[in-house]
Structure formats: C-alpha cells, structure tokens
Design a protein that fits this description.
By secondary structure, the chain is mostly helical. The protein contains 14 helices and no strands. Helix 3 packs across helix 14 and helix 13 runs antiparallel to helix 14. It is globular, with a radius of gyration of 27 Å. The termini are far apart. Belongs to the binding-protein-dependent transport system permease family.
C-alpha cells in the first residue's frame, strides 16, 4: 500500500514538474505565432489591397476586399510608359543577375587573397577594407556618377553592374574571408604537392568548399539589388531601361491616385522573384549556417 502511494506521489510530482515546462512552451509558441502574424500582416495587406478597387483602397481600412478587382493585375501586366511588365522584369533580372555574378567572382577572389595568401600590408589593407563598411553609400555616389558620366555610361546598366566586379562590397568579402579561414590548410598543401598554384588551388579546392558562403552572398546581393531604388533612379532615364522598382514610381506619376490598385498588383509581381529566389536557395543558406563551424 505504501509502495503504491509512494509511486502515485512520485508520478504526481513528476507531472507537476512537467506542467510548468508545458505552459512555458505554450507561452513561447503563442508569442512566436503572434510575432509571425505581426510580421506577415504587411504582406497580407499588400496581397489584399492588390485586389481592391481604387476607391476602396483609399476609403476603407478593412483587410479583406469587399469586391475583387482582378483587372488590377491585367493593368499592371500592361506596364507603364508603353513598356510591358515583362520588359521591366527582364531589366531587373539582368541587373540583379549581373550584380550576383560580379559579387560572387570578385568578392571570392579578394577574400581568398586576404584569407589564404601572405603578402605585404595584408593586415592594413584588410582593415581599410573593413572600414569602408561604415562609409555611407551616398558619400561616394557623386564621385561615381561623375566618373561614369565622363565615360559615357550614364543611362546604361554598366554603373549598376560594373562596380560589383571590383569587389566593392566589403561586407561580402568579410563574410567569405571568415568562412575561408575555417577551412583546413592541409587541403591547399596537398594541392600544392600535386602541382597546383594559388589560382588552381582557389578554383579547384577552395571555391567548391566555399559554396555555402557564396550562395549566401548571392542571395543577399540579389535581394538588395532587386530592391534598390535610389541608385537606379540616379543612373537610368529611359523608360525602356527601367526596372520594376522604378516602374512603380512611374506608375503612380502617370496615373495619379487612380492607379493605387494596379500599383499594388505590380508590387506583388515584383515581390514574386525574390520569394522564389529565396525558396530555391534556402536549403543552401541553411547548409552554410550549419557548416560554418568547420575548423582546420
């Protein structure tokens, strides 16, 4: 009898000990769900507003539309200034793709030099490069514009793509440097014994192992370039060279307040490539975070 009571009291104590943990987890999950709803509300509002009539966008604060206006998307697909949305989408993809290619190539080469090679003034040069992260983009915009204007490259895509091939993004160089420093040096020594020089060691040994960091660089470069508005506004004048980001401003200027519905519809169209790009490479991004602890 005493054994049974002791067992029951032990079970009660165990249940009581587990109960606070359960409530704590429930509170944690509820808080995370509430934070998720707060963060997703702007996206839900954007999707709902893209289907509202123009008068309802201004007069109503309701999330769900009273009447679905599918013509907003057909108007958005027509584009602006006689330029179709497919042309605008192609321009955006060209700039974002060129920026991704340039950052991945140039930043990986610069990072390999700082992380794996020995040369004079490597430390001061690396510190100077890191210091450029604190330099505001607007401080160098005017000198860059003067240079590209004298070269006759204004109103072309070169000012938006060419700097990416010069390792001007110090953040990504630093990111790849930190990843490369964790790779075992024995791999390069083995490649050197097999007759590989620095460039072949970088191309055949280091670059494949740095794939997670390179994909992280590609993801952030694509998102930042796709969402860039100010730089594209400075260098691009012709409507046929506009990106989706610039077309949104032109859409409002061309049609005034009556274009709110199509403007939000075009915003949804502009958002889709970013979501698809992130979903396509999300697995590699998680892989990069998981393998960042590799040490030599």
């Amino acid at each position: 009898m005493s054994t049974t009571l002791h067992a029951r009291s032990g079970a009660t104590t165990t249940t009581a000990a587990r109960r606070p943990v359960t409530w704590r987890r429930l509170a944690l999950h509820t808080g995370c769900l509430a934070a998720l709803l707060v963060m997703l509300y702007p996206l839900a509002w954007l999707l709902a507003t893209s289907l509202k009539p123009a008068n309802e966008v201004i007069a109503s604060l309701d999330l769900l539309p009273r009447h679905l206006e599918w013509s907003n998307y057909s108007t958005a697909l027509d584009g602006v200034n006689d330029v179709s949305v497919w042309r605008l989408l192609g321009n955006s993809l060209l700039i974002a793709g060129g920026a991704v290619l340039g950052n991945v190539l140039s930043c990986s080469l610069a990072a390999y030099a700082f992380a794996r090679l020995r040369f004079r003034l490597r430390g001061p040069l690396f510190a100077f490069m890191i210091a450029t992260i604190m330099l505001p983009h607007h401080a160098v915009l005017i000198p860059q514009y003067i240079i590209f204007n004298k070269l006759g490259l204004v109103n072309t895509y070169w000012p938006l793509i060419l700097p990416k091939f010069l390792a001007t993004e110090a953040f990504f160089v630093f990111l790849i440097v930190q990843f490369m420093r964790g790779l075992p040096r024995e791999l390069e020594e083995a490649a050197r014994i097999d007759g590989c020089g620095p460039f072949r060691s970088f191309l055949l040994v280091i670059l494949p192992l740095t794939r997670p960091a390179l994909i992280t660089t590609a993801i952030f470069t694509f998102i930042w370039t796709w969402n860039d508005f100010f730089t594209q506004l400075i260098y691009l004048f012709s409507p046929e060279k506009f990106t989706l980001t610039l077309a949104l401003r032109s859409f409002v200027d061309a049609s005034s307040t009556s274009a709110f519905g199509p403007m939000f519809a075009m915003s949804v169209i502009a958002l889709l490539p970013i979501v698809l790009f992130f979903l396509a490479f999300q697995r590699f991004l998680v892989e990069g975070m998981a393998s960042s602890g590799l040490k030599g």
